């Protein structure tokens, strides 16, 4: 082999290597729209979050970041942190106290809030009421009035302008400062923002807006990303608070790409049963406040009203004291709520007795019934058991186990529990009672509502720290709790 042949061979191999590197560099990558997982080959199921159909081709050569030239910061140069003005970034009340409680004081200028909830839960009604209050200037402290003449832009993509106007008339939300636009094009929405220069933007909903510059239908992954990015950029540039309405999927999560939750500043969930007037607002993400606050609302035909003291909705006011009822205090975030649990035990004619629940976890009821029968001696194997909460409340935390057990035992023996009694505690499989968190907060709420006695696990609080006006009955196990309340004795065989 001559030297020229060697040079040609080396040149050819080098060219082949360069071509291979170029091919690898231009090979498309794939990214999961839900969690951002990347892969070199397409897959029908994400290898990280296990979502089906979420892996799409990533834009850009090989999924790599584009090169960006260096630009000198002339508009917003870096400054010492002590010189940053914070007054313009403080939260401004919306006029709805329960919403302000969840947001951490109100809406922050430039913040983007995503409000998600099932269809018909009352999202549009709540935001229409908030928009009218801001436009009317009644969002100041103690409803004394805020800055007058504020402009609010309400963009609806799901309903016609006439439908929104009828709802606003029904709930008393008509105000000259509230401007309404029915649009589904992103460019037109941005044009409305330029023309109106609002102090608040409400978009209902983000899944109905589409951009002509991006392929795909409204609500798709690429469209939702583009719409959210454009509105976030406009919010930050203008210090404009933006509230986006979002749909939820069957499992209750926000519809669309999961990255949308990471882009916005606040994510709120609006929950409620269709057959109940109670609505709960929770913050699952909040860059400006806590995420353990819960707002309570009462939804009716005339509008939506915040409930500063919702405990009365979950406690019945019967004149006759009947067996099978017991009150407990649950914690929704940091807010204590008194909830009444009702139980009905009746002889069964079926081979497999019924266990029916409403507002109570069926698996926890089954566990409590097993403990009652094995550790206390209550005969329940041939009895139908029906358990429900008052007012459509949902009780899912273990602190309600003791109240559930006492209500069932009371109905089984047909003996009413003492008046003014509240029960707190988790029931173990051995029949022992375990302390729960926030006992002092729960007992303070019970004392405020007029309860005189409380059954709690032994060692729940320090001696002498109980709220004034409430007597503690500290018990170690479920059998002792049943005897202390006078329902029945220990009849184990």
UniProtKB/TrEMBL annotation:
Lon-protease-like as annotated region, ranges: 384-493
Residues the entry annotates as binding ATP: 117-124
GO cellular component: cytosol
Ranges of residues in domain RecA family profile: 88-248
UniProt keywords, alphabetically: ATP-binding, DNA damage, DNA repair, DNA-binding, Hydrolase, Metal-binding, Nucleotide-binding, Stress response, Zinc, Zinc-finger
Domains (record comment): The middle region has homology to RecA with ATPase motifs including the RadA KNRFG motif, while the C-terminus is homologous to Lon protease.
Entry similarity comment: Belongs to the RecA family. RadA subfamily.
UniProt cross-references to NCBIfam families, sorted A to Z: sms (TIGR00416)
Protein name: DNA repair protein RadA
Organism: Cellulomonas cellasea DSM 20118
Lineage per the UniProt record: Bacteria, Bacillati, Actinomycetota, Actinomycetes, Micrococcales
Gene: radA
């Amino acid at each position: 082999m001559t030297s020229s042949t060697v040079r040609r061979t080396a040149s050819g191999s080098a060219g082949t290597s360069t071509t291979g590197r170029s091919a690898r560099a231009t090979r498309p990558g794939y990214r999961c729209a839900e969690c951002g997982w990347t892969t070199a080959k397409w897959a029908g199921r994400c290898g990280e979050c296990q979502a089906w159909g979420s892996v799409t081709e990533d834009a850009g050569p090989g999924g790599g970041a584009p090169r960006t030239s260096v630009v000198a910061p002339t508009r917003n140069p870096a400054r010492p942190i002590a010189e940053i003005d914070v007054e313009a970034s403080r939260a401004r009340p919306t006029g709805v106290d329960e919403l302000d409680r969840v947001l951490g004081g109100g809406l922050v200028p430039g913040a983007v809030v995503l409000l998600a909830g099932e269809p018909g839960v009352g999202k549009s009604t709540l935001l229409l009421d908030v928009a009218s209050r801001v436009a009317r200037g009644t969002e100041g402290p103690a409803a004394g009035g805020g800055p007058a003449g504020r402009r609010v832009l309400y963009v609806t993509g799901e309903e016609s302008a006439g439908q929104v106007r009828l709802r606003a008339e029904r709930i008393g939300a008509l105000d000259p400062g509230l401007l309404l636009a029915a649009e589904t094009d992103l460019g037109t929405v941005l044009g409305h923002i330029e023309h109106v220069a609002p102090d608040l933007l409400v978009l209902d909903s983000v899944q109905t807006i589409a951009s002509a510059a991006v392929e795909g239908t409204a609500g798709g992954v690429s469209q939702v990303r583009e719409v959210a990015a454009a509105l976030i950029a406009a919010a930050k540039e203008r210090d404009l608070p933006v509230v986006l309405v979002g749909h939820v999927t069957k499992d209750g999560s926000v519809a669309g790409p999961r990255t949308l939750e990471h882009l916005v500043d606040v994510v709120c969930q609006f929950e409620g049963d269709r057959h109940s007037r109670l609505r709960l607002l929770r913050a699952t993400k909040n860059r400006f406040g806590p995420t353990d606050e819960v707002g309570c609302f009462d939804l009716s035909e005339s509008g939506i009203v915040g409930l500063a003291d919702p405990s009365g909705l979950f406690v019945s006011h019967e004149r006759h004291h009947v067996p099978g009822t017991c009150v407990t205090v649950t914690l929704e975030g940091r807010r204590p709520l008194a909830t009444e649990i009702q139980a009905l035990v009746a002889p069964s004619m079926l081979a497999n007795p019924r266990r029916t629940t409403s507002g109570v976890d069926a698996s926890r009821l089954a566990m409590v019934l097993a403990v009652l029968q094995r550790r206390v001696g209550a005969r329940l194997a041939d009895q139908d058991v029906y358990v429900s909460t008052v007012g459509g409340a949902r009780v899912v935390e273990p602190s309600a186990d003791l109240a559930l057990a006492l209500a069932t035992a009371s109905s089984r023996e047909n003996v009413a529990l003492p008046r003014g009694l509240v029960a707190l505690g988790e029931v173990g499989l051995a029949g022992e009672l375990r302390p729960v968190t926030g006992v002092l907060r729960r007992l303070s709420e019970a004392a405020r509502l007029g309860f005189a006695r409380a059954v709690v696990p032994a060692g729940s609080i320090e001696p002498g720290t109980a709220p004034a006006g409430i007597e503690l009955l500290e018990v170690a196990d479920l059998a002792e709790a049943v005897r202390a309340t006078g329902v029945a004795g220990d009849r184990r065989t």
